[in-house]
Write a structure and sequence with these properties.
The chain is an all-alpha fold. The protein has 18 helices and no strands.
């Protein structure tokens, strides 16, 4: 064969490339493009989070992070990374909370809860972020406008414990009576005794409509008092007494507590209490008792006499009440 003559190109088992073939690959590049782009987006999101660590969250950064929650072709793990980061920001900074509340992040919640019904970490982190945002009055008003309750209520009885607890905490933070009552009755076993007391007390301070939660949950209230009576945790007993002080402001609730069984339970409580504030009912009885029947009025008068006797014999002068602890859902 002449040295100047080109040898034939060997046939490749991997591609069609040759001098006579058209200039194109023999495999579809798009088959690799989407997975590779997902990895690229994950690296970008992680880089943005790392770059802004230790500095306040800016509106621009919040909008960029929001895109990783809403755009297609994003790994679920990338969305989870962003959700957890934003949840940490909101939990630790009121300023960052306001930035997130004014961003496109809020618009992603309904979509995430709808698309990832089987992705437990995303459900949990979404509910947790909703709960954290709803802890602040400014952002709570915006959260109400999203109408997430129809999606959160079913999650409050989810088979997964962590998802269920996060959904319950979100509904409690959003503070809408009907969904809250529904989830509280279904999921109260998830809550510690301390959490139940804080929830009941915080609801009672928000108006008579919210006091319905106490009325509907009077079985829970009775159980709560009974367990607190025999608790060795003095702080828990103090919280319970402060909660009773709050719910005593409403006639409909007072009539439940005025039951003879409650009076007996409160009497038993005196052996555990030395320096607690028993200013229960005294601020409201002056205008509530005269309008009641003699039976209820008699029970209330008896209870007040018991409390005054405790004051004289054991407690001495009553101190001015401390500000009651607010309930904040855990992460």
């Amino acid at each position: 064969m002449s040295q100047l003559r080109r040898r034939s190109t060997p046939q490749s088992i991997h591609s069609h490339w040759s001098d006579s073939a058209s200039i194109r690959p023999s495999f579809p590049i798009h088959a690799l493009a989407k997975p590779l782009s997902k990895f690229m987006y994950q690296r970008q999101a992680a880089g943005i989070i790392a770059e802004n660590a230790g500095s306040p969250l800016s509106a621009e950064t919040a909008e960029i992070l929001a895109t990783y929650l809403t755009f297609k072709d994003i790994f679920p793990s990338t969305r989870l990374l962003v959700l957890d980061h934003l949840g940490s920001r909101v939990l630790n900074s009121k300023e960052d909370t306001q930035v997130v509340a004014n961003s496109s992040v809020l618009g992603s919640f309904s979509q995430l809860l709808q698309l990832y019904t089987s992705n437990l970490p995303i459900l949990r982190s979404t509910c947790t972020l909703v709960g954290h945002l709803a802890q602040y009055e400014e952002s709570k008003a915006m959260m109400h406008g999203l109408d997430l309750h129809p999606q959160l209520v079913p999650l409050s009885s989810h088979i997964d414990f962590d998802v269920q607890k996060a959904a319950v905490s979100a509904l409690i933070a959003l503070d809408v009576v009907e969904p809250l009552l529904h989830c509280f009755l279904l999921s109260r076993r998830l809550l510690t005794q301390r959490e139940i007391i804080l929830i009941l007390g915080s609801q009672a301070r928000k108006g008579e409509q919210h006091a319905r939660l106490i009325v509907e949950c009077d079985t829970i209230l009775r159980d709560c008092i009974t367990k607190s009576i025999w608790s060795a945790d003095r702080e828990l007993v103090e919280l319970m007494c402060k909660m009773l002080l709050n719910i005593s402001e409403y006639k409909v609730v007072l009539m439940i507590i005025a039951d003879a069984r409650f009076i007996t339970q409160l009497t038993a409580l005196s052996s555990l209490v030395v320096s607690l504030q028993f200013k229960i009912f005294t601020h409201s009885t002056s205008y509530i008792i005269p309008s009641w029947g003699s039976d209820v009025a008699g029970k209330m008068a008896n209870l007040i006499n018991i409390l005054r006797q405790w004051q004289r014999e054991k407690l001495g002068e009553l101190s001015v009440g401390e500000e009651e602890e607010e309930y904040r859902p855990g992460p």
